[in-house]
Amino acid sequence: MMPPPRMEGIRHETVPGDRVSWREKLGLGFGNAAAGCPATFHTLVGPIFNMTLGMNPALISTILFIQRIWDAFSDPVIGQYSDNFRSRWGRRLPLMAGAALPMCGLFLALWWFPRHASEMTLFWYLLVVSLAFFTAQTTYSMSLIGLRIEATDDYHERTRVAMVVMVFGFVFQILSQWLFPLTQLDVFVDPVNGLRWVMGGVAAVYFFMAVIPIGLCRERNYQQVAARQPKIRLRESFRHVWTNPPLKRVVFARLIESFGYNIVGMFAVYMNTYYLFGGDLKRAAWVYGFMGSAFMISAICCSLFVYPALSRRLGKKTTFQIAVGVLMAGCVAKLVVYQPEWPWLQLVVLVANGAAISGISIMGNSMLADIADYEEWRSGCRNEAFLAAILAWCDKAGSSIGSLICGFILVWIGFDAATGRQGEGTLQMMKFFYFLMPFLGAVAAFFVMRDYELSEDRVYEIKDALARRHRSSHEAQS
After folding, report:
1. For residue 124, is pLDDT > 90?
2. Which of 69, 219, 285, 317 could serve as 90's disulfide partner, Cβ 3.0–4.6 Å?
3. Beta partners for residue 342, in sequence order
4. CATH classification (class only), 24-218+233-471
């Protein structure tokens, strides 16, 4: 039954009961920063294993592909497990507590590979340890996302929560841009020794942040909905997803945007190192540290001051499309600003990318919470972690396929790290693909989201209908 219609154009205000305390927002933010440790891995894997250790980029891409496929398929299973988990402490926090230490310990183990190992030994070590790491990280992150989605029922407060969560993630990812330059410092015996010291400190910080939400956050819906809800079978959850139009639009838009972005995802550091600095790793590392920081600062500023205001004025769908448009503009700028005599002009691209990715992420996460209410309204089931897993599945499927192809593109265009300076034809092909693939993905994502149907008015209608349903259920049980 459809909820009764509202008058269009009403400006909705968040009621006090739907506001999330700063205590919980901080907890969710620190948790998201800890769950972002895979981003640190992906920032360093190319510079460490290819540029420093000389591993074939096609082997690295194969590892990234297998990691992402493993991660993508484990997300729905673990998300479903989190939705169905029952304990005296809830369904999210116990799983986060159990996964925090393995996640951070295995993150450290990624960088503790055998010295002087052969290329294939490095390949198998990195593959096996990373699969164990991503399993622990998925258990933590899927439970955390479920906790975040159920934090509030309000359309606008969800965007504010997503804003805080994303800002924390971006702030701590600024540090990851400087980890590779730190490993190159002369104070260390060699880069591998520097890597182990630096990553030991990073792993300790990640563990500290991972346990913070366990103490600061609470599970809002456990007693009201989840504890009375029967466990949902995996097949039934997939059926619900297949018949959920808003979810399909969001996940497909993220899939193709992620594929287009990640098919040349490693090219940013390669363009900086080889196109602009002729293969000089030390000079390029420090400049790229500044560039990566600019990306994150742009993302933080837009997360705080731009996208929440746009979302409130224009709605989430239009704001999502604006962010995708910024990504297109950044792609076009790549054709102009990459000039060896003016290396700092690449700042334009990194700032545009940071602004775009922050908007896509914030709106996607905020929309997902609206979709969770829509799913409960239409099916009677709350399965926040599974819905988050499906979004992550498509995002990671796009990035995994893109990451696999990326290394092979480098080999195909003639890139060879052992030669240092690359040929002119290789550099021009690298620049062209770096522009084209993200641009095409952004265009496709823009048009996929045209018919997204959960407007502000529709979400508030569903919220009211669910509130009446919950009251009726409570009265019937009383």
Report:
1. yes
2. 219
3. 339
4. mainly alpha
